[in-house]
Amino acid sequence: MEFLSMIEEAHVLACDTLARMFDDRKLMKSLQDAQYDMMLTDPAMGGGLLMAHYLKLPVVLNARWITSGEGHFAIAPSPLSYIPVPGSGFTDKMTFVQRVQNMLHYSIIVYQQRFMVGPSYDAICAKYFEGGCDIISLIQEADIWLMRSDFVFDFPRPTMPNVIYMGGFQCKPAQPLPPDLEEFVQSAGEHGVIVMSLGTLVNALPVDITDQIASVFAKLPQKVIWRHRGKRPSTLGNNTLLVDWMPQKDLLGHPQTRAFVAHGGTNGVQEAIYHGTPVLGIPLFFDQYDNLLRLQERGAAKILELAMFNGPSFQQALNQVLTHAPYRENMQRLSRLHRDQPIKPMDKALFWLEFVMRHKGASHLRTSANRMPWYSYHSVDVLLLLLAAGGGVLLSTGLLIRILWRTCRKNRNKTKQH
Prior knowledge:
Blueprint (H helix, E strand, L loop, with lengths): L1 H22 L1 H10 L4 E3 L5 H9 L3 E5 L8 H4 L20 H33 L6 H6 L3 E4 L15 E3 L13 H8 L6 E5 L9 H12 L4 E5 L12 E4 L4 H5 L4 E6 L3 H10 L3 E3 L6 H10 L3 E3 L7 H13 L1 H15 L5 H15 L14 H4 L2 H38 L1
Helix pairs in contact: 1-5, 8-12, 10-13
């Protein structure tokens, strides 16, 4: 609940900022006079959507998440029987108990949107838009979704024609390393190097954990490049280089790189796929476990949860990723699949951005399903009618048979009397 409360507070702050913008008449007039062609926004926060609605602009979403949960659940059929809710920790092959838990996870997202996130946006809609509006409806009415995912990474699922997949759009061929870093990498010889980074949000793990990590690294024949901004571990070995920043994409694409120790952020996972580098994942929060789970299911990564972390478990997991060939082979296969596209993800995204500007939107790609009442969408009214009609036919047939049987019985009795 603490995490949900943090999200709620973030949306409250976003709506406060948006309200101040709407109240600034000079600012709003300048935005209207600018006559923009399109709004490109991330729907994880709804401010861009409301601004686009105010300015009457076509909308393109740079998306994976919306105000509550993952974007597909707002626009595409999402059967909970085989589509895991983010945060559930499930794959697309769920047991009965897992399907029950998956449904409960989904109910939490619905509750979060309706009672924790939605009210802040409802207040903005009621105050600044005649007739009101609804943030989820605005999300569903977006012209194009540029989804930061693809089906090399994600589990197969239903989608919509206005969803364009651009997973790995930021990935590029590796560039030469700075001379000092290249010298360190080459000094590893045939053993190669290990790259470790926990992203930009976490500078360092607790000291006892970093000491255990450094101790394990010190025992390896490989060299290690570790993005670490905390206290220098007391067990650090001569084979480990601590850096404040690293050219991660270029290191992952270097032929000397043997493994990537990572937290499982979307960008890092997609860069590992692009360059074919196997991953040892240490998920910390949010979607990271689910991201790593998708790689683990494909045999390209191994997950080591922080709750189960210790020196021996880290050493065992790392040795497994380094020495078991299938990890690298499976990740190299994912890399080949990802790269085998007729259009690069970034070029695809640019085409659709220009498409929306040329045609003032892409309403022909939007489904009308989002405007249907739930009972029509699920054909509950049709099923009830058919059941009623079927029941009526059965009842009528039963009554007819009963009448005929009684008539025949009366005639038989009259015949016997004569």
